[in-house]
Amino acid sequence: MTYKDASKPIDERVENLLGLMTLKEKIGQLIQPFGWETYEVKDGKVVLTEQFQQQVKDSGVGSLYGTLRADPWTGVTLETGLSPREGAVAVNEIQRFAIEESRLGIPILIGEECSHGHMAIGATVFPVPLSIGSTWNVDLYREMCRAVALETRSQGGAVTYSPVLDVVRDPRWGRTEECFGEDPYLIGEFAVASVEGLQGERLDSEHSVAATLKHFVGYGSSEGGRNAGPVHMGMRELLEVDMYPFKKAVEAGAASIMPAYNEIDGVPCTVNSELLEDIVRQEWGFEGMVITDCGAIDMVASGHDTAEDGMDAAVQAIEAGIDMEMSGVMFGKHLLAAAASGRLDESVIDQAVRRVLTLKFKLGLFEKPYVDPQVAERVIGSKEHKELARQLAAEGIVLLKNEHQTLPLAKDNGIIAVIGPNANQGYNQLGDYTSPQPPSSVTTVLEGIRAKLGHEPDRVLYAPGCRIKDDSREGFDYALSCAEQADTVVLVLGGSSARDFGEGTIDLRTGASKVTDDAYSDMDCGEGIDRMTLQLSGVQLELAQEIHKLGKRLVVVYINGRPVAEPWIDEHADAILEAWYPGQEGGHAVADIVFGDVNPSGRLTISVPKHVGQLPVYYNGKRSRGKRYLEENSEPRYPFGYGLSYTQFTYSDIRISDEVIGVNGSAVVSVQVENSGDREGAEVVQLYVSDVKSRYTRPAKELKGFRKIRLQPGEKQIVEFHIGAEQLQYVGQNYKQVVEPGLFRIMIGGNVQETLSVDLTVKED
Q1: What is the number of structural domains in the chain?
Q2: 703-749 pLDDT tens trace
Q3: Are residues 43 and 184 located together in one domain of the fold?
Q4: Is 162 helix (H, G, I), strand (E, B) or coil?
Q5: 293 is known as an active-site residue
Q6: Residues 71, 170, 242, 293: which is the catalytic one?
Q7: Are 9 and 157 in a shared domain?
């Protein structure tokens, strides 16, 4: 059997195996049941379910979703779930049965969620992508992706449903936390790093997993910020903005793509052949696998209502370019009958199977279907990965305000009251798509601050004050009594994407954890949790106002998954830190910043409005969108690229190597950056380009480069950027990329609103 001969080319092996398969076996390769439903744990041993065993014997199973996933949706808990070692053993048993008990012995593709860490018990929980974007540190993120790939593959996971490359246009959207920000260029740089990190140099390495780009496309531009809502966008903007990061990732070699739930101009992405075939495969040359989002085919028939029934939806999807159905039943239920009735040509099924099998061969699953449980036990949640999580969290924290040099705090000066609903709630700082965690795995802000001042535990007081969402003020008195005794209040507010992990709640009057029979969720962010406002939920603002009346030094720390628009806090807090969801080491990272062991270097990748009524407020809008409202101007409270440091950086001497170039020419622009403060720090040097006159309307400014540099006090560095077609082109006539002759303004600075500029003229060659 040629397909078992590793010395043969993959194409030859695929065609040989395809020729041996029955139609039923082919369809079996296109379906993906829920992995956690394929086994049970009995007396400490993994036992495969009868249903799964029969399915393997009858037609084979192409893939499993979330075999190692643990969360309230799967019902897998710390008590019932698998340890790192046990997870590897379970996947080995699944693969053994598939290989030994099916007719052709085809291994199963194990797919897992890994947007900010492998979503399995014991795995490292890194900061959410919105925090990672705020690091502007692409190299560090690539290193994180290598760690995630290692943890996932060590248990047998071979493909991940990440990175999320959606461009955020309305931060009321609950999935804002899963995205890198609002700018396509920046997202594209992280997209490339993600593919390089996850997939490594070879997919068949024991340190690599296949990346799945999602959600293709326009998912972050839904109507009203409502999840999976319609997207109203022209093709030019779609190509320039939302599709740009995906194209960059495809060029980097991404193995898989996932279409989004939404529709664009009346066509659901799941069945949009123009996007999936004409652009992605024909224009971009993508040869990988396309997998739906969970239940997306069913949504075509019952949601979008563009299919008569399930069979029609399944046929539309596979003919549009879908190769595998994630966690749905439509392919398994309808494709066999569709082919038998002549409604679907078997050659369409063959093409999808080829792509699935090709990925399995590239991953080396036929040669190395099993993993070593000892490796999983050693690498998952390792000390090195935790240290990496702490560094990422620290670099992603953005210092928004620091009046009178309130921060950093001296470690030997006064009493600190750590107050707020996110001060000591571990799950609230992890974000969505997170597995259950033992308390010892997560360091909260309270614990991080206490660890810094461990020699004087009485100097740190704690009170929750209130919860995230409800209106109870019963904790105010205790919180105010703690604040009254303190010299500084660290008020930890924000949101929560924590699903119901059954961890109970807190006693607002004492701060103690307690178990309650009444289910209560503080979740106000995450998938499917979209909001009408960007204000703090519940009575958090009122708590801040009451504490402020005491006249104490007030440091606000936001832990959240979307921007907060609270003008009162912006005006009255002495210092504000935006920490996003910083992951399991987030409490240490916040404390590192608060006490100055780390100089903040995070910069915003999403504009923070003054009021939700300003939306959309993303920086790279068109020049024609207007200047102000009756009540207020249209500028954000904190602009894209913004972030303070404990030192100062001065920009000067911007130069360009050539003031005039041809349309195919290039130039080098440079600027001098000096650390003019008194301590070492990192600055994000940002390059923006403005096409002054163009045939089609353009944004006033567009990010086209960035570099994170580290300088000692008094140190200067010349930072250079290349300016060529990639920085100057846009989608012009007939939707083709073009560099138009004319005047361009090249700008460099520390954020989009504070730049130096130089002009560049482009002439016909």
Answers
A1: 3
A2: 999 999 999 999 999 999 999 999 999 999 999 999 999 999 999 99
A3: yes
A4: coil
A5: yes
A6: 293
A7: yes
